[in-house]
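Before a colleague's protein record goes any further, I have to sign it off. What it holds is a sequence and that sequence's fold in C-alpha cell form. Would you go through it and say whether the fold makes sense for this chain? The record follows directly below this note.
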Amino acid sequence: MSQRSQQSSILGPILLLCVVLTISYAVLLVLKPSNELAVTKLAKAESQTKSEPIPKPTMHNTIYHGAAMADTEAHTAQHLPDEDGLLAQAAALVNSGKFQEAKKILEDILAKDPTSDKAMVDLGLIYLLDLKDSANAKIYLEKALVTNPNNPTALSELVTLYTDQKQGDAGLNFMQDVYDRSEHNPNVALGIGQLLASKRHFDDAIPYLEESAREGKNPDATTELGDVLSQSGHGDKAIEAYARTIDIEKKRIADGFYSNQPKVGEDRLVMAHMDVIGEYLSQKNWDRANEELAKVREVYNDDERLAALLEQVQARRR
C-alpha cells in the first residue's frame, strides 16, 4: 500500500471514491483524493502481481482473417487483382461459421498464387482457431513468415504457438534461420527476442529487441523491450522504452493508422501509459505515477473503460 494512502486522514471518503471510480469519471476529476485512490489501487495490484504479464491490446483480434497491416502492403502488390476480394469473402464466411468454405477459397488463392502470405496466415488461423489443428496452423504460419518476414500476424501467432506448446527451442531455430536469410529483419528480431524472453534469457533477448525497436515504428517492439528491461531490473531504461511506445502510438493515431478502429488506438496508447505507471509504482515514485495517470485521463473520458484498464494492472506485462 502506498505511503500516500496511509497518510490520508479520512478513510471513509477514500472508500467511497473507490466506488465512485467505477460510476463517475467526472467525480474523479474534481475530487483531490482521486489521484491517491487510483495510485493506491494500482500499487496494491502491482505489489500482488508484479511478475504477471499485462495483456497488451494487440492487433490479433482486429486483423484476423484477410485484413492487412501497412507493413505487408508493398509485398502483396504483386498478387492477383481479385485476391483482396477473395480474402474478404473468406473472412465473411469465417465470421458466419462457414470456415470450410473459407478454407477452400484460401486454398484456391494459394493454388494460383503460392506467394500470398495473407492467404497463408488466414489458413493458418482457420487451422488454429476453427479446426484446432496447431500442427497444420504452424506449417502455414511458418510459410507466411518465410514468404514475407514483415508479416506481423504470422510472427505473433508463431511466437504464441511455440510458447504455448513448449517448442521454444524449435521456434528459435526456425526464426534465427529466417532472420539470417532476411538480412536481420526487425520483425523477425522481435520474435526472437520474445522467445528468448519467454525462456527468461533476458540478456540475450535485449539486443534483438533493441534492433527491432531501433526504427521507432513498431510499438510492440518498444513495449517488449520495456518489459524485458523491467524484468531484468533496468526500470529507468524500461520507462524510456515505454515512452517511445507512447510517442509511436500518438503518431499512429494522428496519422489515422487506427481510423477504422479508434478505440484500439486509444487502448494501446493508454496501456503504454499504464506500463509507465507500473514502473513508477515499483520504484515507489507515487508523484510520477500520479502524473502519468493524469495523462491517461486526457485520453479517456469513459469511467468504465478507465476502471477496466486500472484493473488490468493486476496482470502486469505480457
